[in-house]
Amino acid sequence: MPTETPASRLDFDACYRAASGRDARWDGRIYLCVTSTGIYCRPSCPARKPRPENCRFLPSAAACVAAGFRACRRCRPEALPGTRDWDARGDLVARAVRRIRDGAVDAVGVTGLAAELAVSERHLRRMLLQEIGATPLQLARTRRAHAARSLIEQTDLPLADIAFAAGFGSVRQFGDTMREEFGIAPSRLSRPGSTGGRDAGGPVSDERPALSLRLRARAPFAAEAMRAFLAAHAVPGRDRIDADGTTAHAIDVPGGTAVASIDWADVPGDTVRCAAGASTVGIPIRLSLPGLSDTMPAIQAVRRLLDLDADPAQIAAALGGEPLLRTSLAARPGLRLPGARDAVEFALGTVLGQQISLAAARTLQGRLAAAFPEEAAAAGAPAGFRARPSAERVAALGADDLRERLGLTRARAQTLRSLAVAIAEGLDLGPGADRERARRELLAIRGIGPWTVELIAMRALGDPDAYPAGDLILRRALGVSGDREAARLAETWRPFRGYATQHLWADFLETAARKDPR
Length: 518
Hints:
single chain; alpha+beta; Arc Repressor Mutant, subunit A; TATA-Binding Protein; 4 domains; four-stranded mixed sheet; 25 helices; about 10% strand
């Protein structure tokens, strides 16, 4: 019996109709490979569509490259924002894709990734080839190449520095991969005008590089709502909210603590429309990094924090028929579901925030970061910012000590310590975790209930269908008094109940941000 391939699972006729109609809704979900030219395109590419016998459709850019195709220079399929389709699934392949997206192959290799997922390297490779058409190494190589091209086009860094920043092991590997992906040497790709290192994104010093980039997301993007969310949840020592509209956030990377600054006033003016009518928006980010090797982890953390891989059209289509959400969908097109910059920090902070106001929660979270910073990163943290809190340091103290140092009730101090111990002993709450197992283990900790579990699932585990039915603000917005009724109303919103929750919270968060503008 022949082995099933990714292409054989795609409906060729449906894919070809999408490409013939230049349907941008399919961009990033399928790729058109043209056998007569050896290039691959997005379905919305404005070029004349080839005959059906010259077409192949594959589910990932890495699969296209693995099959011997190079990226189209006209529609630039590699410039697409990512997709959250893999976040809606909890199986092995989805978990692997999420971890590779977060840089696991660069950090621990394929061997380490397979060990994290509790499978053999051979099995992991076979599963990814069967469903995506590319191996873990091919997915990671394509990820590096796309990041490198963005750095080439947006910064004036030397090519050798870009190779290092994008995660390549050598300049030769960098050159070979870029030729394979794009059919052109890195030196022949377009570079920014000579505006000086600071403006074009070059390092401002040898000790602490700084890059200015625009991270692409599908339009629309509800910038005011996102800034309101960040302001309402800003933690002292970890976030800074400036009066001019800029926000700055500590981002945890392998080299220590980076800072991502976002100029929200500049977001609306950067909408780029392609020939097919789809659009993207560039979010202006300035990164201050411990070292250039931290570029990729910092960018991915910011993308997760701002949910830049969401597809607003897909979400609006899924939720638009619900009268309870229609007003918010119209008022805040492109509303995102912000992720946790660090899973451990968020989980510990969520326990501290149980059954208290946002303002009180921020105060406790700031105390936690001040009292228990990760020691290896604390010394190199930039001025005004702290490293993430360490679960190991929290776990090392008794409940009474935590109560005194943080100003907690004894019950909350014990819950905080129990969670920290579980994390220190291996509880995985990151995007690549087994979500159902994580939920079970969290619920087994005394003092942690469904509200806390779903909040952690939503923002740390990255589950777009997480739904804290017991949340007071959510129930008020729904006009119900009980968890069961709130859960019943949300059944038709799957698999985007998390986005629906964000819409139902939006008015409250914007009011909170106005009361405390900082």
